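Record minuted for everyone:
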Amino acid sequence: MNDFILIFRKEFLEVIRDKRTIFNLFILPVIGIPLLLIFLSNLISVKSKEASKIVIKPFEEYDKIENLLKKEGFEIILSEKPESLILKNKNISGLILENNEFKILFNPKSLENYREIKIIKKVLVEYKNEKIEEFFKKENIEKPLFLDYEIKEVPIYVREGLNEIFFLLIVFYFLIILLQSSIYPSIEVITGEKERKTMELLLSYPAKKFYIISGKLLTVVLLSFTSSILAILIYFFVFPKILFVNVPPEYKESLNVYFPSFHRVFLLFIFVLVLAFLVSSINMVISSFARTFKEAQSFLQGTLLFWFMPLFLFLFLVPQVDLRISFIPVINFIYVTKLVFEGGKMFYLFYLISILTNLITFLILFLLLIRLFEREDIIFRV
């Protein structure tokens, strides 16, 4: 046991002395990303204060629509060729009337245009209603009541669970941080030893390989888990205040974060810890095959990209919880998180199968790691 403590202490000190590791573990996810979001939020705020621009090709009675658009904060530009102006500036919308049909022109690459299109549609409906009113008054006909029917969106808020968009963001963000945060410690404890020519000296120490590998693994897990927990706390307590500053008041209620019961949060932390062991063992196995720090970095960054496809698939295309997914390591975290915040009868069964799946996968990888350390052609590959 003393050997294990000595090796863990050695590995931990070596990792935290590396500036690259500290930057990727704490500076980037814990400080860098929130600062980036503050910057982006300020850009959005500046953009929202600017008047939206729309170019109109003059037509009969266009001045009525022009007045309605000005009330909505639009800056009006008149042109016989709206398309040319839109091609030059993607944030400008356009409006033309051809063959008794209004056409709203916009650049699909501009997110701002999607917001403006809704306002333009509302203005056109208002203009159409005014024309209907004028017609009935002119013909001295009583307007049918059904023409006054209005459609109103009424959100029903439930003070539990998690907003779907917020959930997708938090799970994707957390998984990426968890996968990313173990990369540099894994490289440092395996490939770093090779580059420093200290691997031979370490393995000559009279300690069992189990203790040596366990000490290295615990170092990676501890740093990865700490970074992930800090990142998730920042996401909960900082991101909502940054990201939702410009959200209309009527939608803010649905974006609030509501915490589940303490025992479910505790179970989620246990699951994250198991996941940290699994992800760290994956990265350490891959690092074992690299000869240099740069080569290991290329291997592991490529592995990170490999995770993107299944994460996107299960986050956005498989929204329903299925017991079979509990047998898929790492991916089952998505649905464990969903069940933690939303409840459900199958929560404990799904949780138990998922955590056992990740534990078994971790044990297989840990045994593989021990076997790799016994192979000199791999562990001393320089």
